[in-house]
What does this fold into?
Amino acid sequence: MKKTKRVQQIRKAVIPVAGMGTRFLPASKAIPKEMLTIVDRPTIQYIVEEVVASGIEEIVLITSAGKQAIENHFDYNQELDLLLERRGKLRICEELRHLANLIDIVAVRQKKPLGLGHAIWTARNVVGDEPFMVLLGDDLVVSDQPCAKQMMSLYNEVQESIVAIQTVPLEQTHQYGIVEGEMIRERVYEVKRLVEKPAPGTTSSNLAIIGRYILHPDIFDMLSRTTPGHGGEIQLTDALLALSNKRSMYAYEFEGDRYDAGDKMGYLKAIIAFALRHPELKDEFRRHIKEVAAAS
Ligand code: G1P
It folds into this structure.
């Protein structure tokens, strides 16, 4: 009898948050940049909510010194809970309890800032031998169906690594990991080559990697052999290239809008996008924006 291969579920998501956030100084001097507010919650909460909405069971945070606020944010604070209850602020009390119960979070320290590839490698023992998701905290995606979930649907079909991509103007390709590939159907490419932040004019592809990946566990093997690349850092993109030479890999043009919340302009645009979707604020905010636009 022919055996059908069981699809291995994506159960874990790795979220690297160890970076210093130098693009956001001075705001990120004393608080992690992932804790900067977008409308009414810190940036990292949108990422965690995307993970939860996609059905993932556990988060592995890759942290560094000074990032404790992130773990505290998703923890239960008994003192605050009692205070809110005593003051009758039951709605927010309930919201905070929900936040503390969203998902299991494990934190692992990246002891040296050796690059994104090294940060992911730090998660190897906690992830183990199963496919997993990676979400970069700077990349926020506004979409009807969570970006991670869209990728998981494709994973169920192909059962190989997937990088999320969007097309960017050719003048911007040097700011991203770039995928060269062959379109196999609408939104899906088979990856042929990847290059981290190519020098201007050295690639004809405009398919830029954004911060969502589904990775086969063999990536850890590749990462352990990856030497410093662009910027002297151990690059995830270089390990992906090695992995793509061994196994099939796909690039997926997700449905939705992506904001680089690690950049000042991207952050402002993200605030507007999320405010315009916020159930209690959107109507008044839309009116305000129209007034501001009309007056300028
Ligand atoms: C990282 C990745 C890059 C990717 C980008 C997306 O770069 O190395 O391949 O295109 O995230 O945001 P970073 O922006 O951290 O320099």
Notes: Residues 12-258 form a domain with the Spore Coat Polysaccharide Biosynthesis Protein SpsA; Chain A fold (CATH 3.90.550.10). The longest strand covers residues 177-185. The chain is about 35% helix and 25% strand. The radius of gyration is 20 Å.
